[in-house]
C-alpha cells in the first residue's frame, strides 16, 4: 500500500509566566483551501481590532492573532486580520514565483501569517464568525490532513448572561474610553469583560456581546485567553462572506474533542488515521509525537 507523508509538525507549547498556560499554536499551516468564492453581504461602518494573547500590546509580532470585528447594519463578522493579510500576500508571492519558475511542477504552499508562532494553525485564528439577527454561525477551517472535518456551528446570539459590576470599584480606560466591568459563565469558563458605555455597539470579540456598550477587553478568569482592542476604525468597508464549500454542520462535542486531540498531539491524531513519518534513521513509522499542554477557549 502506498504510504503518504503528512508535512505537518508538532512543537511544544510555550507558556508565559505572567499569563500561565496561554493558548499557543502547535500545527504548521499551509493556508486555507475550499473556501469558495467570496461575495459582499453587507457594509461595515466601524471595525474594531483586537490583540489576542499579546505579550506587548504595542507590538503585533507578539500577538497570537489580530482579530477584526466588522460591524454592519445587518451582519457582523469576526475573523483573523493576520490570516486575511497572509492570504493576500500569498497570492502576490505566488504570482511572482510562477513568473520566475514557469516550468515548475508545484508551487510553494506555506502561507505567511503575521504574529508570534505565525506558521502554525490554531482553531481561533482559523474561525470566521458571522452574526445575523439573533444567530451566530462559526466556520471552522481545520489544518491540512483534517480538512474533511471543515464545518460550522450555529448558536443563539448573544449567548451570555452577564452580571454587571454596579459598584464600579474597578476602573479601566481602553483607547481613551472609560470601561465598566461585567462577568459571565459561558461554555464552561468564567469570563470578565470591560465594555465602553459611550460606544453604543452591543458587540465584542469572538461571539461575545449583549452588553450596553462595545466590549473592549475580554479574558477568562484563568487568563488563558485575552482579547484587547487596539484600534477602532470608522468608514464604510464591504463585509465579504465565502461560500465555505464542503463545510458541514458540526456536532459541538465532536468538534471540541477533535480540537483537543489535534492540539494535544497532532502527529498522534494523524497516526491514528494512518499517517506516516520518517524517524531519525530514515525509516517509515506511524506518526507520533509528545502530548502537549492545551487549554481550549471553550470547555463545553
From the structure above, extract its key features.
globular, 300 residues, 13-stranded mixed beta sheet
Descriptive account of the structure:
By secondary structure, the chain is mainly beta. The protein has one domain. Helix content is 13%, strand content 35%. It is built from 3 helices and 17 strands. It has helices spanning 81-100, 252-264, 266-271; strands spanning 27-28, 38-52, 65-72, 75-80, 120-121, 127-132, 135-140, 151-156, 163-164, 172-174, 177-186, 189-196, 214-220, 226-242, 248-249, 276-278, 284-286. Strands 2, 3, 4, 6, 7, 8, 9, 10, 11, 12, 13, 14 and 15 form a 13-stranded mixed β-sheet that branches. The longest helix is centred in the N-terminal third of the chain and has 20 residues, at 81-100. The radius of gyration is 20 Å and the shape is globular. Mean pLDDT is 83; it is low at 1-26.
Amino acid at each position: 500500500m502506498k504510504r503518504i507523508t503528512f508535512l505537518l509538525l508538532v512543537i511544544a507549547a510555550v507558556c508565559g509566566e505572567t499569563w500561565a498556560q496561554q493558548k499557543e499554536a502547535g500545527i504548521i499551516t499551509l493556508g486555507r483551501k475550499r473556501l469558495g468564492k467570496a461575495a459582499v453581504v453587507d457594509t461595515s461602518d466601524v471595525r474594531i481590532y483586537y490583540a489576542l494573547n499579546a505579550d506587548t500590546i504595542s507590538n503585533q509580532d507578539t500577538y497570537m492573532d489580530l482579530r477584526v470585528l466588522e460591524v454592519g447594519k445587518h451582519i457582523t463578522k469576526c475573523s483573523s486580520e493576520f490570516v486575511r493579510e497572509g492570504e493576500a500576500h500569498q497570492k502576490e508571492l505566488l504570482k511572482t514565483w510562477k513568473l520566475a519558475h514557469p516550468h515548475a511542477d508545484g508551487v510553494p504552499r506555506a502561507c505567511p501569517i503575521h504574529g508570534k508562532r505565525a506558521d502554525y494553525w490554531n482553531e481561533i485564528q482559523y474561525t470566521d464568525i458571522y452574526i445575523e439577527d439573533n444567530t451566530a454561525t462559526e466556520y471552522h477551517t481545520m489544518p491540512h490532513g483534517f480538512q474533511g472535518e471543515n464545518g460550522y456551528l450555529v448558536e443563539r446570539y448573544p449567548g451570555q448572561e452577564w452580571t454587571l459590576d454596579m459598584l464600579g470599584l474597578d476602573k479601566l480606560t481602553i483607547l481613551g474610553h472609560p470601561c465598566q466591568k461585567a462577568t459571565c459563565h459561558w461554555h464552561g469558563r468564567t469570563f470578565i469583560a470591560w465594555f465602553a458605555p459611550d460606544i453604543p455597539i452591543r458587540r465584542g470579540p469572538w461571539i461575545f456581546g449583549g452588553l450596553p456598550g462595545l466590549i473592549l477587553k475580554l479574558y477568562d478568569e484563568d487568563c488563558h485567553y485575552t482579547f484587547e482592542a487596539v484600534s477602532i476604525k470608522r468608514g464604510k468597508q464591504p463585509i465579504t462572506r465565502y461560500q465555505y464549500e464542503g463545510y458541514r454542520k458540526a456536532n459541538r462535542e465532536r468538534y471540541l474533542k477533535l480540537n483537543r486531540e489535534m492540539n494535544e498531539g497532532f502527529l498522534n491524531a494523524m497516526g491514528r488515521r494512518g499517517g506516516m513519518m520518517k524517524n531519525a534513521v530514515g525509516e517509515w513509522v506511524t506518526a507520533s509525537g509528545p502530548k502537549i499542554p492545551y487549554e481550549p477557549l471553550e470547555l463545553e
